[in-house]
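Box 3.1 A note on notation
Throughout this textbook, protein chains are presented in two layers. The first layer is the amino acid sequence; the second is a token string describing backbone geometry. Keep the layers aligned when reading.
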Amino acid sequence: MSGSKCTRLTGALVKPVLDSVDSVLFDCDGVIWRGDQAIPGASRVINLLKESGKKVFFVTNNSTKTRKMYVEKMTLMGFNATEEEVFGTAYCSAMYLKNECKLEGKKVYLIGSNAMRDELQAVGIQQTGVGEDHISGKPMDWANVDLNPEVKAVVVGFDEHFSYSKLNRALQYLIQQPGCLFVGTNRDTRLPLEGGKAVPGTGCLLQAVETAAQRQAQTVGKPNRYMFDCVASQFGVDPDRCLMVGDRLDTDIMLGSNCGLKTLLTLTGVSTVEDAEAHQKSGCAERQGMVPDYYVESIADLLPALQG
């Protein structure tokens, strides 16, 4: 590829780039693991980065696990990780609702997972909504569903029990409850699976609620900079000396661009060099934000420089 961006990071180029940063942010699925399989060499890369004095953090838009659950998964795969280093959208949404929305001690209507419920409870926010919610009665009754008067926000994350009934209840809170806030974890519309398969992502659920409510949610996850701010505020991360590593141009690399970080695309997940090249050639300013500074076939490509 032409231009100074999207340079293949290999050989003698690797060490100067790593020397120029103190902190590294890793996306998870497609970067350090795929499904339940670690990317070969990934745990060694993470552990060596830490041994060399780098701060390492894990930033994921997946809202179905708590920080504790992520660390349990990482430990089984050989990663040296602590809960404080994990920033998933379940945790970051809880922090956003507590610190930015001042909802500690309050209640929200949650379209989401048990993990989101647990992270909310950990910061003193109660929820209603987790689990199945079946529709009953006639359409005239649906606009008069029971609403909890204590609910101060509608929060949308990944929910395998998403239904018309939940969509309707979210709408009624947003139009009937004065000052009701509206927060979403992320806008990823598809979750890629092995073999080129995919399933609908949280963005589909969020867009359904937004369409019904004729209102846009505030999102917390990548590429919104709140996720980086969450890390930076707790650990004093300097954006000028931070590298974002990810497999998606529209979330990971865009987050890095939005926050002034160095960016590294790994080709073990969703996006390709051809995708990045198309953005680079587009002439569109927004698409330029999806062009990484560097790319590698796999983060294992960093191993020689770390072992040397």
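Residues 66 and 118 are 7 Å apart (CA to CA). DSSP finds 13 helices and 16 strands in the chain.
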